[in-house]
């Protein structure tokens, strides 16, 4: 009888310790998930920016703005990375003039989304890039922060994107 009682107490103690650990470590696990999605976003943007820069160097002309599929089609990337934050959006290339990439006014952008999770991912991207999250930025390429990679919050609509939409970018 005492062995059964000790076994039951042991099981209850184990369950209690597991619940306490989950409550204590839960936010840290969620934070690490956010940081890993931000790191994957930074890596994907870096890969795309490097491919666009390699295209410019080897072809002798800037990469055209728009969708970045030609980078994969012409062999500068094996495949186009998927958006790590899973909002269903891909990557696009933007310029200040809308034509070809010129100097500092060219970026590869990626939608992070909207809401609290997007805000935390964007903050983590900005922190990893050594910047502070910029809020209320005008949606023009020349107004993007000057960091090579970063994230910001659009506070006004950009085409079909809603107000308060978070964007990650890489300059090329």
Task: Please provide a written account of the structure.
The protein contains 3 helices and 6 strands. The chain is an alpha+beta fold and 172 residues long. The protein has one domain (30-171). A 6-stranded mixed sheet has the order 1-2-3-6-5-4, with helices on one face. Helix 1 crosses helix 3. The longest helix has 58 residues, at 2-59. The protein is elongated. The model is unreliable at 97-104 (pLDDT under 50).
The amount of helix comes to 40-55%
Q: SSE string, helix = H, strand = E? A: HEHEEHEEE
- Based on CA atoms alone, the radius of gyration comes out at 22 Å
DSSP E strands, number: 6
SSE topology sketch:
Blueprint: H1 2-59, E1 66-67, H2 69-73, E2 91-95, E3 106-113, H3 116-128, E4 134-137, E5 149-154, E6 165-171
Parallel strand pairs: 4-5
Antiparallel strand pairs: 1-2, 2-3, 3-6, 5-6
Spell out the key features of this protein:
6-stranded mixed sheet; 19% strand; 172 residues; alpha+beta; single chain
